[in-house]
Automatic annotation (TrEMBL):
<dbReference type="Pfam" id="PF02746">
    <property type="entry name" value="MR_MLE_N"/>
</dbReference>
<feature type="domain" description="Mandelate racemase/muconate lactonizing enzyme C-terminal">
    <location>
        <begin position="141"/>
        <end position="247"/>
    </location>
</feature>
<dbReference type="GO" id="GO:0000287">
    <property type="term" value="F:magnesium ion binding"/>
</dbReference>
<dbReference type="GO" id="GO:0009063">
    <property type="term" value="P:amino acid catabolic process"/>
</dbReference>
<dbReference type="InterPro" id="IPR013342">
    <property type="entry name" value="Mandelate_racemase_C"/>
</dbReference>
<dbReference type="InterPro" id="IPR018110">
    <property type="entry name" value="Mandel_Rmase/mucon_lact_enz_CS"/>
</dbReference>
<keyword id="KW-0460">Magnesium</keyword>
<dbReference type="GO" id="GO:0016836">
    <property type="term" value="F:hydro-lyase activity"/>
</dbReference>
<dbReference type="InterPro" id="IPR013341">
    <property type="entry name" value="Mandelate_racemase_N_dom"/>
</dbReference>
<dbReference type="Pfam" id="PF13378">
    <property type="entry name" value="MR_MLE_C"/>
</dbReference>
<protein>
    <submittedName>
        <fullName>Mandelate racemase/muconate lactonizing enzyme family protein</fullName>
    </submittedName>
</protein>
<dbReference type="GO" id="GO:0016052">
    <property type="term" value="P:carbohydrate catabolic process"/>
</dbReference>
<keyword id="KW-0479">Metal-binding</keyword>
<dbReference type="InterPro" id="IPR029065">
    <property type="entry name" value="Enolase_C-like"/>
</dbReference>
<dbReference type="InterPro" id="IPR046945">
    <property type="entry name" value="RHMD-like"/>
</dbReference>
<dbReference type="InterPro" id="IPR029017">
    <property type="entry name" value="Enolase-like_N"/>
</dbReference>
<dbReference type="InterPro" id="IPR036849">
    <property type="entry name" value="Enolase-like_C_sf"/>
</dbReference>
Amino acid sequence: MKIGRIESFHLRYTDTNDFSNRRETVLVRVETVDGVVGWGEGIAMWPEACRAVCTIIDDGLRPLLVGAGELTVEQAWTAMRKHCWWYGEGGLACFAYSAIDMALWDIEGKIQNKPLYELFGGKHHESLPAYAANHVNKATLEENVAEVVDFQGQGYRGVKLGFGKRGLSDVGRNPEGDVRFVRALREALGPEFEIIVDVGNGVVWDRDTAIRTVRAMSEYDIGWIEEPFYPTQLDDYRFLKAAVSVPIASGEREWTVTGYSRLIDTGTVDVIGCDPARAEGITGFRKIDALCGAAGITMNAHAWSSAILSAASLHLSVASPNTRLLEFKPFPNALLRDLVDRPIVQRNGMAQPSDRPGLGVEVNEAVVSRLAGEHWGST
């Protein structure tokens, strides 16, 4: 392909999945000289980070690629990584070239008239179980349990619950209360509905607290415990893995293929979380997925932003032998419902990608313009 145009968009939206707080992201529109358009996302989230990512795209990567002649996606990916050598292949640069890489794969699928999963060797899964990925933010235990029971009633096969999030809940701030919450969930949901606990950045456990809490939660059959420590606390991960039987997940805050390789080599995790809008794009995700396969561990795609990212994560996940579920934001918002012509939804508890070319979604550019133009006061 020959790239003729690259545009970045800093979007702001209200997210009903995050206690109706403001969230932000960066979308990229890439157009070839022949008029084929692809879309991608860099999930930078913070306002200053989104502005910086747009600058990297507009002032650094766009001049690099536009007019560069015939390029494969891999060649463009390599060129972008090399361009960012001084200020880092990870961090803000990674959001920028992840977004462009995603858009280039969308274009490649359209050029070949194939859905992305076919470009990656076809489906290993016809469909995947859909899990509601939700922040626990209601005021009472009863309200939070009822919310998850409602997800079960909607057909979701499991849930991944973020602890220590914004809102009214104290879940994530009281380990004994957290165990009571998991017990109440299991009693309400029955034995077949999977519960995954995402400890996350808002929770601070020391080693002993983590071991004690995870052992107690294991009595209620949780699927895995995600990021129980800060990602660099590898000694704590080693102690926890040796002390508990519950699978341990990490990786969502990693950046590069090299970084994931180092993490996998530590032997401290059973599940790798990876976001193609952050971790070197679709190209990076596939390389990381291959590392997971070689190590015999599970790959889990992060898809907690726009419908563009959800589409990319779904194609990657059905094409991988190492995945077993797909996460969904359970509540609609503009980036899920309005941004594309066919929102990514679960049906009867399963997720199946579009068979249309590329990502399989057509972006409503009027919605992009509206969300890029909304003002929220000083940022």
